Design the sequence.
């Protein structure tokens, strides 16, 4: 079971579809994000979603049965997310969604997966799974041909290194 902990305002501000909703008010953008997550979650009922908003509860969130909505009140959403990371430290089934480098690093230190807010927004809006085989195949092909580092070491290179370190 995957658990997503989402820095909501990062997702809203990194995607034009959600960002455009802000002109109607932040609550409209929040509802658009929650609606997109709810729609995505219906295809993946074993996933859990915790969406963390900065600020005070505006009454948005209670209507979403597949999403746990948290408000930071007088704290920052980052503080709540870090607290949750500490609590779940080492759980590889947790994915932290944020664009904040500090949050990404903190999650990695605690052995958790991370995903950028941009990638998450694109995925929930397109309905694609994170670990789809088509995505892996395309990523592998791109990495294979665009990597600066070689995929393997030749026998000649191994012999050369042995000579350099006096192992031959």
Sequence:
């Amino acid at each position: 079971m995957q658990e997503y902990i989402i820095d909501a305002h990062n997702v809203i501000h990194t995607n034009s579809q959600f960002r455009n909703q802000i002109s109607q008010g932040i609550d409209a953008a929040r509802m658009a994000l929650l609606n997109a997550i709810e729609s995505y979650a219906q295809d993946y009922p074993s996933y859990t979603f915790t969406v963390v908003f900065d600020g005070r509860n505006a009454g948005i969130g209670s209507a979403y049965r597949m999403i746990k909505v948290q408000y930071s009140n007088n704290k920052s959403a980052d503080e709540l997310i870090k607290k949750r990371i500490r609590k779940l430290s080492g759980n590889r089934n947790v994915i932290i969604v944020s664009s904040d480098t500090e949050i990404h690093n903190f999650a990695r230190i605690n052995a958790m997966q991370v995903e950028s807010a941009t990638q998450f927004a694109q995925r929930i809006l397109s309905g694609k799974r994170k670990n789809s085989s088509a995505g892996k195949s395309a990523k592998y092909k791109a990495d294979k041909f665009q990597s600066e580092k070689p995929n393997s070491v030749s026998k000649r290179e191994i012999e050369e290194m042995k000579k350099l370190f006096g192992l031959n």
About this structure: The longest helix spans residues 26-43. The first strand starts at residue 3 and ends at 7. Confidence is low (pLDDT under 50) at residues 132-149. Residues 27 and 59 are 9 Å apart (CA to CA).
